[in-house]
Amino acid sequence: MLLFMSLRDRKRARTRQALIDAATDLFERQGYDETTIADIAAAAEIGARTFFSYFASKEELLFPESDGRVRAAIDAIATRSPDERPADVLLRALGEINDTSEEMVSPLAALRLRLIQTVPAVRGRALQLQLDAQREIAKHLAEAFPGQLDLVRAAALTGAFVGAVSGALQALLDSADRADPAALQAAMRTATEVALTPWRRST
Amino acid sequence: MLLFMSLRDRKRARTRQALIDAATDLFERQGYDETTIADIAAAAEIGARTFFSYFASKEELLFPESDGRVRAAIDAIATRSPDERPADVLLRALGEINDTSEEMVSPLAALRLRLIQTVPAVRGRALQLQLDAQREIAKHLAEAFPGQLDLVRAAALTGAFVGAVSGALQALLDSADRADPAALQAAMRTATEVALTPWRRST
DNA sequence: TGCGGATTTGCACTCACTGCCGACCTGCGT
DNA sequence: ACGCAGGTCGGCAGTGAGTGCAAATCCGCA
């Protein structure tokens, strides 16, 4: 994998990771708003100007590889069995996303979840990404069930699923210990459980 | 109404409206990003600094009285009849919101819809407001059905509902000829149907 | 008419982000 | 081994949002 990258690309990837590490460390220690881009760049030993050739904005730093879950969902759609209905596919997709996310306990993920709750700019960005993901999933879902699902219906279904899960998650997180990674994962599981139960069996 | 306000308050309200008018005009004419706060303030004939004593940010200008729809929904919840289930109440709330919003044709609302689709910062703010509204509605819904709906379940239901509607709406606006009331109505219907059917039998 | 509290506003400042351009580095061909 | 070309880095200067502060101004009320 890494061997196939040129020296340039490897160095670039290393710098990118250094930026993420430095930023999470600083955010953790002094808070998001109190950490400037100059701080992060200095900690990663690059020029402040160069930061923006790695990330388009300060928030972007918190969402590297944001498309992993979308790909998982699209895979789940692609590998559907003939007797599965749209809702079944989405159910399986969300389940697989949950399983695949041991990433959920990474320090970055925990920090991200906390910042989403507390920093408006971060929450805004997260919601936008979620919406983009929804649109992408809905598109593939509609293509997977031609004739049965038009785009609007697919979008409604996807929106209902994602909305239910994130709504439940938000409610859980409002009254939970947000510093404990284990609690976060448990909340995640509970949220999908509660949100998706009404869809299990029939319809 | 206006008569009961002091001179100070009336002047304040007038200035506020002048800001909104000036801003919509400028946004319409030269675009959102190309319009500076200084421009808006100058057009409304106040100091640039004073702008921020009326609106906390540039985006806030586009969402005055954003709580109207939330209040309508809460009213709908409060005035439920004993035989209505949670899903029924949400459905009725949506209907009443739609009725009450002849605001939908105001120039501000049209501009806002366009900016939500094109300016990331505006979309982010809109999504945040939607999430806050969801939380508020879910809270009241849970309180209206004690024993039957806990907070997490109410949040899941509300999230599914809102997610479905906004997802369908987004899909419609993305692809189709916009502003066709009939298509909009149809989209709403399929969205609510998709979102609520699974909840009908159990809850 | 004049007082007291609130509103307005200019000023200076921080920070995110951008365009520009020269300095530097790396992969490639000779 | 060497130098060239294209990409990367990073300093500099600038814009615009947003904030704290303190003086000026205004309004309601006595």
Which helices and strands occur, and which strands form pairs?
The structure is a homodimer of 203-residue chains.
Chain A: H1 7-30, H2 37-43, H3 68-78, H4 86-100, H5 107-118, H6 120-144, H7 151-174, H8 181-196
The structure holds a DNA duplex (30 and 30 nucleotides).
Features:
homodimer; 203 residues; mainly alpha; DNA-binding
The percentage helix of chain A is 55-70%
Tally of separate helices of chain A: 8
Give me the strand/helix succession of chain A: HHHHHHHH
Question: How big a fraction of the residues of chain A is strand?
Answer: under 5%
Mean pLDDT of chain A: 88
**Form type of chain A:** globular
What's the story with the biggest beta sheet of chain A? none
Rounded to the nearest angstrom, the distance between the terminal CA atoms of chain A is: 44 Å
Oligomer: homodimer
* Most extensive chain interface and residues per partner: A-B, 44 and 45 residues
CA gyration radius of chain A, whole angstroms: 19 Å
Uncertain runs of chain A: none
Structural class category of chain A:
mainly alpha
How many individual β-strands of chain A?
0
